[in-house]
Every structure is written in C-alpha cells, then in structure tokens.
C-alpha cells in the first residue's frame, strides 16, 4: 500500500486533497485574537469548529485555550445566528469580563449569509455599555488557509489604530509597528528582545508570546496575561513606520497596509528573518529606517556577538551540510525563508512544498532565491498535499525533512529524519517555544539540523563514533 | 481534600451557579446535580450547549467521522467540505489498528478532503465530490468509501447519498455510502454517533456471511481501541476461547461489520455511542445484548464471567476462571505496592459518554474517592440508567436525527435465547438490554454534572481540591496550571492501554506517577515564602548557612 503514491500525479489531483498541508482560516483568526490583551474570541457557527481548533492549539502550545462558539443548532442554520451570537457575547462578558471580543465567522455562518457587519449597531451599543472593543472578520474556510484567517483578523485589529501626532518622538527612539506573521511565541519573544537591544520601540500585532506560552498560575486566570493592549493598538497610528513579515502572504492580505491607508504610515515588507542573511536584511533595514527618521539605533556588541557566534556555528558544521538535500514544507512564507536559510548553510532545498495557492510569479521567486545559491534542481510545489510531497521525494530523495509534525508519516515511510519546525508540532514538546528567527533562532536550528544528520550517520555507521 | 455531604455540596452548587445570568442559571442548575437519597432523582442531559460558554463538546461530524468510523482501517473516509474539518480529525484520536496481514489495507493515516472552495459553495460541490471518490477508488481500490458532509454541504444541498449510490453502481466492487453528519445537527458529537450507527446498519451490516467461526461468538460494541485497549481485550477473549466476530469499531475492518449479524451475543462497552446498533441487531436478527466493562480488573473479570454465563458452557466457564486467576496474580501484586500511595486520594472525572463511569472502577481498586463525575455528551440514560428512557422527551434537536425502523428479518431473524431462557439467566443475575448508568455508583453528596463548563470546573477544583482531575486535552493545561494533576481519558496522554488486567496494571502505575509527582512541590519560589526546600544537599547548605 505504501507504494501507491507514485501513481498519483498533481494533474489528476483535482478531486481530493489527500493529507493536506494547510488548515482553515478560523484557526488563524483565533490565534491572532490570542495576541490581543484581555481578549476572548468567539467563532460564529457550529461548536465543533471552536472545539477542534482549541484541541489543535492545545496540543501544540500546551496551554489552556478558550475559544467560544455561538453553537449553531439546526434551527439556527435555518433561521439565522443573530440570537446565538448575542447570547454568546452576553455569556462571555459575564464569565470572562473581557476588554476585547473578536468575532470570526465559520463556513456555516458564511454559507447562510451571516455578515457580522449587519450587527454593527447592536455591537456598538454593547461596546459602549460594557466598555468592550469588538473586532470582527469573515473567515470562511473555503477562502484561503489558516494564514488568511490570521492576517485578516490582524488587519481587522489594525483598523483600530488612530492617526495621531508624532509628539512623542523626542526621545530619538524609532517607533515601529511590527506585524510578525504567524510565528511561534518563542519567535515573538526573540524579536521583541532584538528590537529592545537595538533601542527601538515597537508594538507587535499580534503578540501571543505570553498568552500562548505562559507559566504556572498562582490563581486561576480566565484570560491569560499578555498581548497587545487596545491602547497600544490605537497608538500604532503614531508610529514612524510599519514592518510586516511574509512577502508572499502580504500580497493577499497586508495588515500594515491598513495603517498605511488609515494613518498614513509607510510600510516595508520583509521575508521572515530565518537565517543569517534574512536577519542581516532585517537589521540593516532597521538601521536605514532609523537613519531615515533621524532616530538612534544601537547596533550593540551583544548583537555582533550573536551574529558572530552564528557564523561560527555555520563554519563548525558546514561539512555535515554540504551535499545534503532537504525537503521543506509548510506555509509559503515559511518555506521561502527556510529554503533561503538552508541554502546559506549549504543544504540544498531539493523540494519545497506548500498547501497554499500562490501565483506563478511567487513560485518563480522561491526558485530564484534558491537558484541564486547555485542550486538549480529544486522542485517547488504549491497548492499541494503530502501525497504530492511523497511523489516528489520518490523522484529526488532528500536526506532531511523540515516542517511540522504532519510530515511524520512521510518521514517514517522513507526513513528520512524530520526536523520539526512550524505549526503544528504535536508529537514533540516545545513547539510553542521553538525560535527560528533572528541570529539566535538560526543558531539553535543549525545545531539541531547538524545533530540530526550526525545522529543518522552515527546510527548507520558499522563502528559508531563518540568524539568529533 | 474536603469532606463532602449533601448539604455542603448543595451550598457549593449555589455558589457556582451565582455567576450565571438567569437564563443560563435555569438551565445549568438542572444539569448540575448533587446526588441525594431520592431514587427518582434526575439530571438534564443531551440539551443544547449555551452559546459563549466554553464547552468541551464537539460536533456531529466529529462523532460520526472521528469517533465511530475513524478507527475502521479499510474504509476510505472522504470529508466533503472545506479543509479544516478533515484536517482536525486526521489522526488526532489515537485509535490503533493492526491489519490481519502485513499488506492488508489500512487508510487510517490518510485524510481525504474535497477541500471545497468558494466556487463549490456557489455552484455546488457534487462534481468535485464525484471526482474525489473516483480518485480514491482509482488509487486504492478500497472495498468501501464513506462520505461525510460538513456544515456547508447540508446548506448548499449537495446530494451525497445519490452520488454514493451512483458511484457504487458504477464501480460494482466498492461499497460507497454517505453520512449526513453536518456539524450543526444535534447538540453534540452524540448525534454523529447515532447517524454513524444508522448508516453502517443500513449499508454494511448483514452483507457478508463470512464471519469468524467459533463456538462462542460475540461482538464487542463501543470499544474504540484508544491506546491499544482493544488489543488487550482481543487477547483476553482469545485465551478464553471466545470468538470476536466484530468490534465497533476499534481495530475493525468493514468485513467484520458486514458479518456481525452472525455473532450470538452483543457486548456493549460504550453504551452512549453504540446502543443503537445493539438494539437494531436484537430486533432484526435476534441477538441479545448485555452491558460489560473492561475498564478495571474486577470489572473485566465480571464481564468475562457474564459472557461465560450467557453461553452456559462448563468448559468456557472453567477457561474464563483460569484466565482470570492467571491475570489476577499480576494485578494483586502491583496493587499491593501502589494502593498504599493512592488510598484515600480523590478524583473528578468529566469525559465522554461512558468513560466517566467506567474509570470509577479503577479508582475504587486504588482506594480513591470520586468527588464529581459527568459526561460531555451523555444522555439521561447514561446517567440514570435505561429506566430513564421512558421519560426522555424528544426535543427538536433529537427529532431531526433519523430513527431507523427495523423489523425482524424474514429469513435471518433467529432469537439466540428464548424469553424463558433469558428469564432464567436473569434469575442468575445476567441482565439483558440493561444499563444502570453511573447513578448507583455515585455516593451521596457527590456532584453529577452534565457538559461541565470551564467556570464550573474552576470553582469545583478551588473548593474541593481533588488530588486528580480526569478529562480531555482541552481541559488539561488549565487544570495543571491550577496545580492539580491531570489525566487525559480521551487520548490517555499518549499512554495506555488501560483496558483489561494488563491495562489496569498500567493504570495503577500511571496514577501513582501522576498523583505522587514531585513537580507540584516546586510551585512557588522559596523567597516568596511559599515554596519548600527538599533534598539532603539543600539541607546541608542551609545548615552551613545557619552556622
């Protein structure tokens, strides 16, 4: 049975997706809401959506994750969901006393034509009497993927930003808005400390670095602490500049462009800073921005040391990487940046696969990025699933797989080691803390990849060796 | 742990309810019950979830595709809908399977979805579904393909049953059938169980006479092989000389379902999810059912004895007793070691439609007390026993779930026991078509709570301070953050098996590890004045400091 996949070709794959490499928009929207302080999220539709998504988050983040549902019944599906939604909101307020409520629709609500903007007046009334901010977006799963939902909810939150005077720039600190894309809590923490070291004042949207990776509680917390406050979101309208990660996803939905339109704040879009070059690009850009806005930036020794240690790690392990091939899969932006990082350490990203539908131009860009390093045989698969990946592997066998836990079946089938990165990581601990970005993220990743390659060789060696 | 009695618990209930708006209060107060002395005491269950309350319940699709059909290895399950539903139910329930031959079909690691897009919602998804079925057939040539409808499918009106019929006729050698299990149907995953039962009964049961042969043939209903439970039970039955014709649906194959009507007794583990099939098999083929429970060493022994009693065979009875005696040696020795460490500790269980009852057996064996229990998607009969059936009012949500009309099969109806024989066995203590629910096992003053909410969980833990809380992964981390050890009873925290005697031993050790873990002592740093310092090396430092 394991050999059947070689009979499938992508052209014949129009009917079914077999083992998908993407999930649905409400998941992304819910995660984005978790990055807003004092917030609760309600999914408007069948309760299964909230339950499935909670279950999925919890097994990755290993944190309590409350997501409410308007719990449609068959009658609601026929007569409309307004009553359920408002009952749900009332009950959330009573139980959680949230400062913010995020509403994301599901397929069910969207298919019967429920539009949250119909209810704006009623929501405004509640907002006023209960002192609550509502953020809402439409996230039917038949449009886009989890990344779409994540960015749409982020963009909806960005609409709260208010244009304001740059009166507080006198301290010569660069004021940035950072849209970090759907990275891990560990990544957000890393990026926050990076900008802190540089002496930049940044508002991250969203910021679930604490809410989705918190500590033990001394008392029960209905809503975990952390997240970007509404006040700070409003003040995003007074920043010098917005920075957005994810050059592919931002073409479909760009939260930073909301600030550009509403508050006249210029934006730049950068690839996810995975690896030395992508991090260099980020820091260099920050330096240029600081210069442009007449601000100071502290390119500290600490930062230079981190960079230098990373280079050292690359040098130490380069012989293990050279001649090695990897298959990378996940969201398109993740794949792009991961492939670029692999190239710079000398591993050939032989197969790049994403479940997202991206344009031919974007596929070409991924290819060019890789070609630039002299690797010309790369297969880039978009709108693909794990059977497509398996098929590509049969054609061009890699030494390593890099991606989320969903690739384990493939790893096991071909006996290829899997380096876990991205979302979801459900068969290992620490997915929520996994840092890929910045010099430190690349440092950790480099060690892990090298050790994975060594472990495989060690196990296969007839003599074994214990010292290098 | 606090002592509980009826009065104290009633007071606590009042405090818990205090937070609710009046409408919610009215509803929840019927679903949160303090067990008292009234033999007619009732609970409200299987009613709609209050929107906005964080429920642990899933949807109809989850119950149908995920729970009942998920563990069957050789049916290709195609989720007809957008990508999320299929993705979330892909290998998340940890049921295991073992094909009879190394190259036997096993599609459990595959997740087929039609991945509906915008245009399919607007113009219909029937063409897409046909293509997906064709593709699955072309690649795998499976003996069966099942289609599961998600929310939008029911709304746009794709006729999955007509397509199933059409494709089945087209293929000729592949059974294709559909499940209208849209997520909004019913009030929880329970509706999905019922729909799954119906369709399997309609399209599969009775289509093969090639069942396993043997003298004592049974079906095991409502055992889903989480963590390998079914493997343990299969081994036990085999050693006793009992032939397992089919399991619904742990480690199962569609062939087993097709021939399940050739068995002579149905044994029900999870009453909630599968009693429909048992009832229908009784009516159509004359196979009686009994309730058994393989969770707990004593319960496993009792269940094996019940099966032996049914067949009224001396040799079988002897073999069953031998197997029980062999197994109890290991059980007793482990229990002797562990019970002193668990005796007197307390637990709460909120899970499933039967596990919150079954697992009480294992806690009794460890000398632990149950403070509160309840189901996520149970009905009144799972709490109060089947005596409740006559007084359950059919509400709109339940009425919408098809109730199959089944009649005795003109050719195959063959009552395995006459009414007289059944009455005689009943005299000896073997009850047919009977389940008493968790009620008789719950001591007075304990809480019985249906579809417990996050708020109620938090209050109960705070006030009753249990030594252990059992539920699912959704509750796990909130409970642990409150400093209470937690054991998952859905996925077993990736452990198990816990069924049978071998499973009981695993459980005793697991609970010892959990309730006696040292990690909880580290909560609070010493400089906060709350932590305690342990260990001889620390003592040495402290002593030297004092000097």
Give descriptors for this structure.
heterodimer, A: 468 residues, alpha/beta, 5-stranded parallel beta sheet, 4-stranded parallel beta sheet, 18 helices, 14 strands, 13% strand, disordered N terminus, B: 547 residues, Rossmann fold, 6-stranded mixed beta sheet, 23 helices, 44% helix
Report the C-alpha radius of gyration of chain A, rounded.
23 Å
CATH topology of the domain at 6-55 and 438-521 in chain B: Rossmann fold
> Could you give a short account of the major beta sheet of chain B?
6 strands, mixed
Q: Pair with the most extensive interface?
A: A-B, 78 and 88 residues
Strand content of chain B: 5-15%
> What would the principal axes of the Cα set say about the shape of chain A?
globular
In quaternary terms, these chains amount to heterodimer
Which CATH architecture of the domain at 6-55 and 438-521 in chain B would you pick?
Answer: 3-Layer(aba) Sandwich
Mean pLDDT of chain B: 93
Q: Any overview of this molecule?
A:
The complex is a heterodimer of chains A (468) and B (547). Chain A is an alpha/beta fold. Chain A is 45% helix and 13% strand. Chain A is built from 18 helices and 14 strands. Chain A has helices at 25-34, 47-61, 74-79, 82-96, 107-111, 120-130, 146-158, 185-198, 230-235, 249-252, 255-263, 276-292, 301-321, 332-345, 360-371, 386-395, 408-414, 438-460, and strands at residues 17-18, 39-44, 68-69, 100-105, 133-137, 174-179, 200-204, 241-245, 267-270, 325-329, 348-353, 379-381, 400-403, 418-420. Chain A is globular. The two termini of chain A are 41 Å apart. Among the domains of chain B are: 6-55 and 438-521, Rossmann fold, CATH 3.40.50.1980; 60-186, 3-Layer(aba) Sandwich (Rossmann fold), CATH 3.40.50.1980. Chain B has 23 helices and 14 strands. In chain B, the strands form 3 sheets. Chain B has a 6-stranded mixed β-sheet. Chain B has a 4-stranded parallel β-sheet with strand order 3-2-4-5, with helices on both faces. A 4-stranded parallel β-sheet of chain B has the order 7-6-8-9, sandwiched between helices. In chain B, 56% of the residues are buried. Chains A and B meet through β1, α1, α2, β3 and α3 of A and α3, α4, β3, α5 and α6 of B. β1 of chain A pairs antiparallel with β3 of chain B.
């Amino acid at each position: 049975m394991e050999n059947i996949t070689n009979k499938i070709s992508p052209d014949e794959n129009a009917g079914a997706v077999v083992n998908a490499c993407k999930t649905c928009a409400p998941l992304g929207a819910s995660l984005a809401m978790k990055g807003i302080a004092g917030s609760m999220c309600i999914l408007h539709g069948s309760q299964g959506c909230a339950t499935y998504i909670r279950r999925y988050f919890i097994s990755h983040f290993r944190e309590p994750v409350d997501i409410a549902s308007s719990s449609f019944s068959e009658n609601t599906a026929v007569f409309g969901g307004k009553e359920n939604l408002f009952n749900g909101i009332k009950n959330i307020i009573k139980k959680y006393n949230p400062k913010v409520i995020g509403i994301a629709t599901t397929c069910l609500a969207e298919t019967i034509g429920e539009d949250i903007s119909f209810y704006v007046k009623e929501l405004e009334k509640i907002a006023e009497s209960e002192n609550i901010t509502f953020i809402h977006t439409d996230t039917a799963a038949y449009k886009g993927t989890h990344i779409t939902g994540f960015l749409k909810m982020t963009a909806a939150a960005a609409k709260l930003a208010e244009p304001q005077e740059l009166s507080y720039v006198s301290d010569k600190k660069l004021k940035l808005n950072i849209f970090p894309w759907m990275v891990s809590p560990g990544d957000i923490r890393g990026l926050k400390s990076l900008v802190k070291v540089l002496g930049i004042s940044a508002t991250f949207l969203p910021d679930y670095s604490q809410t989705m990776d918190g500590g033990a509680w001394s008392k029960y917390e209905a809503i975990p602490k952390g997240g970007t406050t509404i006040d700070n979101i409003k003040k995003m309208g007074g920043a010098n500049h917005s920075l957005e990660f994810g050059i592919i996803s931002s073409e479909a939905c760009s939260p930073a462009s909301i600030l550009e339109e509403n508050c006249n704040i210029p934006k730049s879009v950068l690839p996810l800073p995975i690896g030395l070059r992508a991090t260099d690009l980020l820091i260099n850009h920050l330096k240029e921005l600081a210069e442009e806005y007449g601000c100071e930036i502290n390119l500290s020794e600490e930062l230079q040391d981190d960079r230098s240690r990373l280079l050292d790690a690359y040098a130490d392990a380069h012989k293990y990487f050279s001649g090695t091939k990897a298959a990378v899969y996940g969201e398109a932006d993740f794949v792009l940046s991961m492939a670029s990082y692999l190239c710079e350490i000398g591993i050939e990203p032989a197969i790049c696969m994403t479940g997202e539908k991206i344009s031919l131009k974007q596929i070409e860009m991924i290819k060019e990025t890789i070609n630039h390093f002299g690797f010309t045989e790369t297969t880039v698969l978009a709108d693909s699933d794990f059977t497509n990946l398996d098929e590509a592997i049969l054609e061009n066998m890699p030494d390593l797989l890099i991606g989320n836990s969903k690739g384990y079946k493939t790893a096991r089938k071909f006996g290829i080691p899997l380096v876990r990165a991205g979302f979801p990581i459900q068969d290992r601990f620490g997915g929520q803390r996994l840092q890929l970005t910045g010099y430190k993220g690349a440092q950790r990743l480099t060690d892990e990849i090298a050790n994975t390659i060594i472990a495989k060789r060690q196990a296969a060696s007839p003599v074994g060796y214990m010292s290098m | 742990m606090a002592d509980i009695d009826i009065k104290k618990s009633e007071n606590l209930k009042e405090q818990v309810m205090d937070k609710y708006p009046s409408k919610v209060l009215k509803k929840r107060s019927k679903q949160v019950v303090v067990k008292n002395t009234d033999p007619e005491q009732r609970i409200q269950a299987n009613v709609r979830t209050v929107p906005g309350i964080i429920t642990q319940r899933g949807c109809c699709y989850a119950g149908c595709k995920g729970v009942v059909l998920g563990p069957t290895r050789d049916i290709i399950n195609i989720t007809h809908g957008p990508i999320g539903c299929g993705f979330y139910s892909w290998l998340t329930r940890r049921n295991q399977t073992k094909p009879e031959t190394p190259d036997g079909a096993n599609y459990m690691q595959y997740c087929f979805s039609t991945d509906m897009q915008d245009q399919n919602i607007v113009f219909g998804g029937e063409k897409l579904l046909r293509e997906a079925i064709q593709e699955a057939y072309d690649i795998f040539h499976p003996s069966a393909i099942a289609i599961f409808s998600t929310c939008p499918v029911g709304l746009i009106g794709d006729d999955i049953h007509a397509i199933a019929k059409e494709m089945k006729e087209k293929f000729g050698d592949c059974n294709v059938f559909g499940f209208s299990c849209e997520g909004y149907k019913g009030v929880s995953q329970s509706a999905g169980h019922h729909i799954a039962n119906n369709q399997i009964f309609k399209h599969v049961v009775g289509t093969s006479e090639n069942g396993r042969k043997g003298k004592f043939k049974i079906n095991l209903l409502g055992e889903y092989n989480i963590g390998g439970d079914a493997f343990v039970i299969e081994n036990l039955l085999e050693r006793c000389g009992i032939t397992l014709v089919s399991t619904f649906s742990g480690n199962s194959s569609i062939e087993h379902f097709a021939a399940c009507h050739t068995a002579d007794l149905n044994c029900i583990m999870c009453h909630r999810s599968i009693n429909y099939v048992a009832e229908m098999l009784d009516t159509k083929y004359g196979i009686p059912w009994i309730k058994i429970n393989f969770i707990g060493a004593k319960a496993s022994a009792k269940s094996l004895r019940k099966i032996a009693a049914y067949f009224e065979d001396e040799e079988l009875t002897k073999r069953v007793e031998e197997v029980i005696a062999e197994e109890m040696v290991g059980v007793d020795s482990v229990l002797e070691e562990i019970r002193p460490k668990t005796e007197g500790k307390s637990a709460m269980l909120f899970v499933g439609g039967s596990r919150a009852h079954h697992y009480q057996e294992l806690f009794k064996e460890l000398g632990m007390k149950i403070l509160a229990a309840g189901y996520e998607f149970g009905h009144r009969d799972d709490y109060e026993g089947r005596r409740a059936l006559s007084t359950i009012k059919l509400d709109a949500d339940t009425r919408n779930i098809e109730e199959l009309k089944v009649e005795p099969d003109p050719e195959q109806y063959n009552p395995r026991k006459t009414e007289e024989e059944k009455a005689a066995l009943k005299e000896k203590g073997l009850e047919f078509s009977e389940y008493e629910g968790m009620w008789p096992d719950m001591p007075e003053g304990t809480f019985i709570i249906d579809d417990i909410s996050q708020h109620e969980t938090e209050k109960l833990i705070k006030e009753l301070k249990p030594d252990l809380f059992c539920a699912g992964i959704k509750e796990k981390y909130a409970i642990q953050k409150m400093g209470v050890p937690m054991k998952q009873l859905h996925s077993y925290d990736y452990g198990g098996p816990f069924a049978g005697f071998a499973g009981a031993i695993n459980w005793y050790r697991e609970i010892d590890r959990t309730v006696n873990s040292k990690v909880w002592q580290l909560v609070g740093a010493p400089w906060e004045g709350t932590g305690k310092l342990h260990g001889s090396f620390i003592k040495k430092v402290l002593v030297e400091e004092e000097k």
